[in-house]
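User: Could you go from structure to sequence for me? I need the amino acid at each position, not a summary. Structure tokens:
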């Protein structure tokens, strides 16, 4: 590797050595060193041994071998000794870590054993002098074959004179190519380092006139040069070079000029003026077919100086123009559309309808408007605002909107009073309730957008027109053309706005007065809750607009001149006295109304749980506006809505529109989270509609932020319009659904509503539902109350509004369940037919018990929040004896359940108008039955579970009719043809004689058993449990040991959980499908009686259920 590296480097490194021409010497020297190292290492001496260096020297002395240059040997240095080709001397070093120590020197004695080969290929010493002649730009090098030849120096190098070596080019010179040598750099360039391969051009701002230089000189101030320049040039007028070494002359900045050459600075146009920064250099150019004064750089004379755009020249000074004023420069001033000025050229922005300010020359207003009014806001006498910003002559039809609104308002208030006065929550129709909720949400949403419409945002059509329409819900009388009434000041118009709220109250009082006189025979106390309810409903519905109207004097729009005007009364200046003071006094005094209502609503919500516990129905009627709209669990949501309305109505008071929209966005997002989290509305549809409306409004406010921050665009305005429409699109859809429910739908959703006590008749009611749905005449749904016990409001609504018949499964304990009593009471109040299905232990409570029902079932006081007073409950319970009663006699079976379903559906010939019995009916077991459902015949729920299982399995068995299951009747033995037993496991089943005997017979017949768990209280049999029950088993059968062993063998199979009392139809259908699959399989485990009762331990491990 070392030899190869020598070949690739300069041969001149070795040119002075007396034997460098003979490469054989170099090889033999390296070979001798390697032999010496190997001998020392073979001796086992570590390299870090202190004597390693001396051992190496001794080993080298003993090296002898025959190499390419001859016989090689070494001896200590002796003066005058050596071979015929010189006595090369080698130095031996000892290297230990970072320590380098010289050991000694040795001399190589080389004896020539053959003729050497010289560099030119010959073998005569004279050939050594016959070296090749090389040009001045080349040197001698060793070729790959070991001969000397002429070679070229690399780039950036040249031949060193009188030496056969390549040397780096010195500064000022460069070697562009291999073998080219070192050349001088020309003018405008230089090199300042060694071995340069190219010259560096003088950078811009410097120059060089001579050749072979090592640097460039900088141009003086006022001059400049380009790159690679050999001289500098002068800066012309309108430009300058402040420092030496400038690469270009800098144009005089905007607002500066220079009229001479070779200058180092420019002169400011504002020199000598009070506001020099307002001066600039301007030139008039054609921009899109119009001339415009445009600032520019490089002005060459003071005549090109003037006021900047946006400034006007006044008494030799440049003064700023207000927003909306177009100051093109040089004293040219115009107004943009949507702005107006007073006589002092102070700019006002025409908020709202900007068409009234057409722009152009100062003092110009739309036709019919007073240019002396603030921002062209007032019309001339006898004129009213038109649609295009102008004012038109007043006419008789201008009073028509006011008449229509008054008549419509009176009609709405009368209707509202009648509905609230006559309607109880327990008897409210769901469709009517939905219509009311949708109407209240619609009005509230319109008021929200009406508040946004009053903000200082430049809405574009059609969005601005839509928002303007919503002012009708904000008590803004400007839509009724008040300017047609001569002499009506802003203060008077504001007073009329406030009076509109109190006029509504006065109308309600008049309606109440007439109602008390003609309906309640002057019983003021009885009618008082209706009055409170109507007044509260009005305030709650229009609270946003009421608050916004009362705080309108504090809602001021800013103007470019720093002044503010009241948003609804743009001709009135803010905080400068005048009419605003009177408005603020009246508004703050009127604010006692919404604030007082919030206080009252908070008190009512705090009292609600206690009053409902006391059964205070009058309290509920009085505050129906707070509680009727929402679920009983969300009784607190009424004050939340009032607080929300107060805050939204107060939002415009904030002066910063951007901050106002941010606040509104955050507030509406929190409101949406509350709706999603608590679902406070009484029905699910209003909850969904409210969420969708909130979402669209949040997006709308987000887009409004873009319009407020950037001035908006058509795309943003179009998107905002879409979300504005989207906020309302859900409300008409829900309203249409409500109208359909209330007026169009001809029948109710449910043919029957099944009321039952789940613990006693849960499976029975579920089975009865299945049998009812199998009746051809029952074409509508059957509702089971335990399917929705979370929301009692919806449950009672289904009874009163959506059910034809309430079927009550009367069992022991049902009258202790307040929701069952509530369902019966709701049916009574809404005149829904009630049929009582009397179980064996069921009975109608006595009159004394009903009179004290609040003591036996105190939870009924909670029904007050659903509009049911204790008196209503007692009346409904007393009415039970007058309802049709169907008493179940004997054990239930398929025939009895089918007869009961037909009787309820009106298809049974035994059904009469008065009470009647069904049963006892028996279902004989077919002699060829192969599948038997074995139940505890004394347990109603277990038998019902077996019937339900049979009903669901029949479609799953299909063509395998031989396997159709049958419920084993009481006191019947297992048929001889039985092959599979579906054992319905309920609590106490293994304490029934008929069940144990049937299992024993089944084991003798080698039947298979599929255990079905139907009772949550069922305990899987264990060895310990069977031992405890062994005396009972002994008393019931003759072979207790065999029966016990059979029971354990049964639960070697996986049990299927089938519980109609708690599971839905979907889950039960899945379970029935699995049982059918197990029934039709051929690998069922069969029972046997060959094992003894002692073999418990192995059977315990296989017991589990699915």
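Assistant: Here is the amino acid at each position, in order:
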């Amino acid at each position: 590797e070392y030899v190869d590296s020598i070949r690739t480097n300069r041969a001149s490194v070795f040119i002075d050595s007396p034997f460098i021409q003979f490469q054989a010497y170099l090889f033999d020297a390296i070979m001798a060193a390697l032999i010496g190292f190997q001998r020392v290492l073979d001796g086992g001496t570590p390299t870090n041994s202190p004597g390693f260096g001396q051992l190496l020297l001794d080993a080298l002395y003993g090296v002898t071998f025959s190499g390419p240059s001859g016989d090689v040997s070494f001896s200590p240095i002796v003066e005058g000794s050596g071979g015929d080709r010189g006595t090369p001397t080698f130095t031996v070093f000892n290297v230990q870590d970072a320590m380098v120590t010289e050991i000694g020197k040795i001399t190589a004695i080389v004896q020539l054993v053959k003729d050497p080969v010289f560099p030119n290929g010959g073998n005569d010493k004279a050939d050594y002098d016959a070296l090749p002649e090389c040009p001045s730009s080349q040197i001698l090098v060793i070729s790959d074959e070991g001969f000397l030849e002429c070679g070229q120096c690399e780039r950036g190098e040249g031949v060193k004179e009188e030496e056969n070596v390549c040397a780096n080019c010195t500064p000022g010179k460069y070697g562009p190519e291999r073998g080219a040598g070192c050349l001088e750099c020309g003018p405008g360039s230089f090199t300042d380092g060694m071995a340069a391969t190219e010259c560096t051009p003088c950078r811009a701002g410097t120059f060089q006139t001579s050749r072979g230089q090592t640097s460039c000189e900088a141009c003086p101030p006022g001059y400049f040069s380009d790159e690679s320049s050999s001289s500098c040039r002068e800066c012309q007028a309108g430009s300058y070079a402040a420092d030496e070494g400038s690469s270009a002359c800098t144009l005089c900045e905007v607002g500066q000029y220079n009229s001479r050459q070779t200058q180092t600075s420019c002169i400011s146009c504002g020199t000598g003026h009070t506001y020099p920064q307002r001066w600039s250099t301007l030139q008039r150019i054609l921009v899109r077919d119009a001339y415009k004064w445009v600032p520019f750089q490089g002005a060459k004379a003071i005549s090109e100086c003037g006021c900047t755009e946006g400034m006007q020249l006044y008494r030799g000074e440049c003064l700023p123009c207000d927003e909306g004023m177009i100051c093109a420069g040089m004293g040219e001033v115009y107004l943009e559309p949507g702005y107006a000025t007073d006589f002092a050229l102070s700019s006002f922005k025409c908020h709202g309808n900007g068409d009234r300010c057409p722009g152009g020359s100062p003092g110009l207003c739309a036709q019919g408007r007073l240019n002396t009014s603030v921002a062209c806001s007032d019309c001339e006498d006898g004129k009213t605002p038109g649609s295009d910003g102008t004012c038109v002559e007043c006419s008789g039809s201008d009073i028509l909107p006011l008449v229509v609104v008054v008549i419509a308002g009176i009609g709405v208030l009368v209707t509202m009073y009648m509905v609230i006065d006559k309607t109880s929550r327990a008897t409210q129709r769901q469709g009517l309730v939905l219509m009311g909720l949708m109407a209240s949400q619609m009005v509230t949403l319109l008021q929200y957008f009406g508040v946004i419409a009053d903000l200082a945002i430049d809405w574009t059509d059609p969005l601005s027109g839509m928002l303007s329409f919503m002012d009708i819900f904000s008590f803004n009388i400007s839509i009724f053309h008040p300017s047609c009434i001569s002499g009506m000041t802003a203060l008077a118009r504001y007073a009329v706005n406030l009076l509109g709220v109190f006029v509504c109250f006065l109308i309600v009082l008049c309606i109440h007065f007439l109602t008390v006189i003609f309906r309640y025979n002057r019983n003021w106390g009885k009618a008082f809750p209706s009055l409170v309810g109507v007044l509260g409903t009005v305030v709650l519905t229009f609270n946003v607009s009421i608050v916004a109207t009362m705080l309108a004097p504090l809602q001021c729009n800013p103007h470019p001149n720093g002044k503010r005007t009241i948003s609804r009364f743009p001709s009135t200046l803010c905080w400068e006295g005048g009419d605003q003071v009177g408005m603020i006094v009246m508004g703050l005094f009127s604010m006692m109304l919404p604030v007082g209502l919030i206080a009252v609503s908070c008190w009512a919500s705090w009292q609600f749980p206690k009053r409902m516990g006391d059964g205070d129905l009058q309290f509920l009627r009085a505050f129906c506006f707070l509680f009727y709209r929402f679920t009983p669990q969300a009784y607190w949501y009424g004050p939340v809505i009032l607080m929300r309305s107060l805050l939204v109505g107060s939002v415009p008071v904030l002066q910063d529109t951007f901050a106002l929209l941010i606040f509104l966005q955050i507030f509406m997002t929190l409101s949406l989270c509350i709706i999603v989290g608590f679902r406070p509305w009484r029905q699910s549809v209003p909850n969904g509609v409210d969420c969708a409306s909130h979402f669209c409004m949040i997006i709308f406010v987000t887009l409004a932020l873009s319009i407020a921050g950037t001035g908006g665009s058509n795309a943003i305005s179009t998107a905002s319009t879409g979300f504005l429409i989207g906020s309302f699109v859900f409300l008409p859809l829900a309203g249409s659904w409500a109208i359909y429910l209330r007026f169009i739908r001809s029948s109710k959703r449910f043919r029957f509503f099944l009321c039952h006590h789940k613990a006693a008749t849960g499976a029975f009611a579920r089975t009865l539902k299945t049998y009812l749905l199998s009746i051809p005449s029952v074409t509508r749904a059957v509702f089971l109350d335990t399917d929705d016990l979370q929301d009692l409001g919806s449950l009672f609504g289904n009874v009163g509004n959506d059910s034809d018949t309430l079927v009550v499964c009367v069992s022991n304990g049902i009258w202790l369940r307040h929701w069952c009593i509530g369902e019966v009471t709701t049916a009574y109040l809404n005149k829904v037919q009630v049929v009582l299905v009397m179980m064996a232990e069921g009975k109608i409570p006595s009159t004394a018990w009903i009179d004290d029902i609040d003591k036996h079932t105190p939870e009924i006081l909670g029904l007050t929040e659903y509009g049911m007073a204790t008196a209503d409950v007692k009346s409904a319970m007393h009415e039970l004896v007058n309802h049709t009663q169907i008493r179940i006699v004997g054990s239930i079976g398929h025939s009895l359940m089918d007869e009961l379903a037909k009787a309820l559906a009106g298809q049974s010939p035994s059904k009469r108008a008065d009470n009647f019995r069904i049963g006892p009916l028996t279902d004989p077991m077919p002699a060829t039955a192969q599948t038997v459902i074995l139940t505890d015949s004394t347990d109603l729920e277990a038998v019902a579970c077996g019937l339900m299982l049979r009903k669901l399995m029949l479609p799953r068995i299909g063509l395998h009719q031989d396997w159709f299951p049958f419920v084993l009747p009481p006191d019947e033995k297992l048929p001889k043809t039985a092959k599979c037993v579906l054992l319905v496991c309920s609590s106490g089943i293994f304490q029934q004689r008929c069940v144990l005997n049937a299992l024993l017979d089944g084991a003798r017949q080698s039947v298979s058993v599929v255990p079905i768990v139907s009772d949550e209280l069922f305990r899987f049999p264990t060895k310990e449990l069977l031992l405890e029950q062994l005396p009972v088993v002994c008393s019931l059968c003759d072979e207790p040991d065999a029966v016990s062993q059979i029971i354990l063998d049964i639960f070697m199979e996986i049990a299927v959980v089938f519980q109609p009392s708690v599971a839905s139809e979907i889950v039960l259908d899945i379970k029935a499908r699995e049982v059918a699959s197990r029934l039709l399989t051929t690998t069922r485990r069969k029972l046997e009686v060959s094992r003894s009762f002692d073999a418990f331990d192995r059977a315990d491990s296989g017991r589990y259920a699915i």
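One structural detail worth keeping in mind: The two ends are 81 Å apart (CA to CA).
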